[in-house]
Amino acid sequence: MSAASDRSTARRTLIVIGLVLATVVGLALVWATRRVLVWALVAVFFAVALKPLVDRLERRVRRRALATLLVFLAAFALFAAVGALIVVPLVDEVGRFADRAPELVREAQAGQGPLGRLLERFHLLRYAEPGQLRRFGARLGDPTVGVVRSVAQAVAALVTVVVLAYLMVLEAPKIVAAALRLTGDGPAARLRRIGRDSSRIVTGYLTGNLLISVICGGLTFVVLFLLGVPFAAVIALTVAVFDLIPLVGATLGAIAAAGAAFLHSPTAGIVVLVFFVVYQQVENHLLQPVIMARAVRLNPLTVLVSVLLSVELAGLVGALLAIPAAGIAQVLLREYVPAGRQALPQPADGGPAEPAGPPDTGPAAGAIAPERPEAGPGAPERPPAGG
């Protein structure tokens, strides 16, 4: 008896050690491939968002590959058009700034012009001396290699995400069919509902995020236009595009707009900074919870809590996936909640909430009883019509 007990204990110990080792190896693999996993996760996000458009177009062109190609080309053309609206005026402004740079430097060193008066007001004129400027210029070359490496990684990530999303959308029917073949008819129908609702949630999230960005860009344009800042429309469009990026997008847009406003005048820069401080509080605690709650059909409190927790746990990726993840979790809870809680009988209008007699234990227990005739309990049943 003791030998059998010792063998059982040894077997359990080996099983526990194996599970612990497998968990450690799995976590190590996830950590080593975290960059690729993040790219794949973002690709899934965009693939789920674009799949409904491809499905609609496929019903017209009758070819999945052609529909996928057309949708991705349209998305690429849209992003290229928005980028051209931002980059072309920005390049012109950079050229004009480069032509005026020597004059601006001389004015700044003499304490003249908008930049010189700003440096003088904040006691920063000593940093505009020729020696200081040369030292700053020499230091700018130090991080050049890091900047180039970061740009190359960003381009590689973008290309990888686009290719993965394209292949996911293209092969979606085959992937779904193969997954449903592994289940029965009942689970397959449930999985179809989950997939349909999840796709609706992701699409609603993207729509809501786009609406928030449009509001941010529109308000920014109004403020910059009233302050007389040059190229207010281009700056507002840049802010709207930046605002699409979760967690840091609004801050990047605020930096760009405030920098342009400070170059126009210190007063305009301060007003723009105050505007963005107030607007970010309104967006984070009012616009985003309310709009996302309507787009994703989530409670505003759930939206806000999920965003805060996801940002704390996973940073930028967590902010990007927080609201869709909360919506998909709600779908899963609704699908897998015990069916008995959704099939409770409802009392008739004006009737008692519960029957006065003992509970029915017959085969029809739990079902809603048919309507009784108006006669008393002792009256005989009415014969059927025509009987």
Kindly describe this structure:
- The protein is 78% helix and 0% strand.
- It has 387 residues and is mostly helical.
- The protein has a domain at 184-337.
- Residues 342-387 have low confidence and may be disordered.
Which key features would you list for this structure?
387 residues, mainly alpha, 12 helices, 0% strand, disordered C terminus, transmembrane helix, AI-2E-like, transmembrane, transport
- The low-confidence parts are 342-387
Question: What structural class do the secondary elements suggest?
Answer: mainly alpha
Distance between the termini: 78 Å
Helix content: over 70%
In round numbers, the mean pLDDT is 74
Radius of gyration: 32 Å
Order of helices and strands: HHHHHHHHHHHH
In terms of quaternary structure, what is this?
A: single chain
Strand content: under 5%
Shape summary? globular
Q: Strand count, sense and closure of the main sheet?
A: none
Helix count, per DSSP?
A: 12
Question: Number of DSSP strands?
Answer: 0
Biased composition (Low complexity): 362-379
Region (Disordered): 343-387
Membrane topology: Multi-pass membrane protein
Keywords: Cell membrane, Membrane, Transmembrane, Transmembrane helix, Transport
